[in-house]
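Lecture notes, part 5. Sequence design as translation. It can be helpful to think of inverse folding as translation between two languages: the language of shapes and the language of residues. The source text, in structure tokens, appears below.
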């Protein structure tokens, strides 16, 4: 499933403003994640929503990957995207195991803790920049904005809005990303933030064509224009070949047992939920190559 991100410039080209309804993308990712705990669910949804917005800041074959390490260093949340708008995200196995049941009394702030960090890697496979900052706000949105302020000296606003139904399933996800450009006047970002907080602007704008969006934005921010619409989608880069490494790591006795019983070995990608089945003959080939 795909969603769109709309790229605009407002306030006489002094602020880049991106906004999205990324509901479908997040629904796919969250359905695969199988997270039961509401707060852990929210943390992953927010991280993926932010990273999806950052996809439109990339060029050519660039990628951007984020790792949120919670105060308990065993627990991590991963999210990444590329310039083509392929988005994915997951909580690591340690975090999933700990939060496999609902911890109804934990807040997002408590889950993140006071010593969490964000590590962001951006660039090409052989040429990446890595930046690390702490998470003083403990709410993900403001912590990513803080990252850009500290690491890139750029004033940024990030807002994600996640809505659930009575069963705790995600039904709506909106996000905005606003960043001050050289020449932006003092208070420009605050003006953008105030307008989007005062009204539910994202759903309204996303129902409009480009001309209508520009008219609506110009009523609030002078000299605004739509630059581009870009697609985003959930995509995982896993393959059966990647799981051969897992089988090679298994004891030979376990592989031989499967061959002797003429049974397959099933593996599952914990990012996308895709299953890869290895037949007895494929397992035998692995045994012979060891």
């Amino acid at each position: 499933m795909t969603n769109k991100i709309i790229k605009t410039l407002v306030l006489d080209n002094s602020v880049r403003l991106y906004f999205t309804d990324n509901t479908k993308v997040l629904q796919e990712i969250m359905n695969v994640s199988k997270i039961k705990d509401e707060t852990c669910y929210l943390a992953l949804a927010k991280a993926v929503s932010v990273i999806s917005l950052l996809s439109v800041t990339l060029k050519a074959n660039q990628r951007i990957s984020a790792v949120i390490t919670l105060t308990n260093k065993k627990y991590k949340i991963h999210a990444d995207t590329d310039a083509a708008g392929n988005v994915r995200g997951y909580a690591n196995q340690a975090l999933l195991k700990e939060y496999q049941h609902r911890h109804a009394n934990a807040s997002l702030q408590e889950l993140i803790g006071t010593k969490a960090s964000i590590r962001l890697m951006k660039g090409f496979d052989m040429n990446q920049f890595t930046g690390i900052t702490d998470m003083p706000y403990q709410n993900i949105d403001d912590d990513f904005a803080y990252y850009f302020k500290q690491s890139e000296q750029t004033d940024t606003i990030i807002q994600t809005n996640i809505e659930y139904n009575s069963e705790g399933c995600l039904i709506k996800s909106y996000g905005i990303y606003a960043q001050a450009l050289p020449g932006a006047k003092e208070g420009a970002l605050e003006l953008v933030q105030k307008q989007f907080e005062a009204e539910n602007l994202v759903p309204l704008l996303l129902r409009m064509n480009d001309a209508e969006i520009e008219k609506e934005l110009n009523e609030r921010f002078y000299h605004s224009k739509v630059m581009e619409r870009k697609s985003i989608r959930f995509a995982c880069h896993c393959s059966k070949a990647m799981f051969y490494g897992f089988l090679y790591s298994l004891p030979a006795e376990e592989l031989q047992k499967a061959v002797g019983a003429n049974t397959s070995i099933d593996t599952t990608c914990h990012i996308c939920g895709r299953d890869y089945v290895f037949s007895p003959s494929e397992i035998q080939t692995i045994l012979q190559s060891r």
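The translated text above is only one of many valid answers, since several sequences can fold into similar shapes. The chain has a mean pLDDT of 91.
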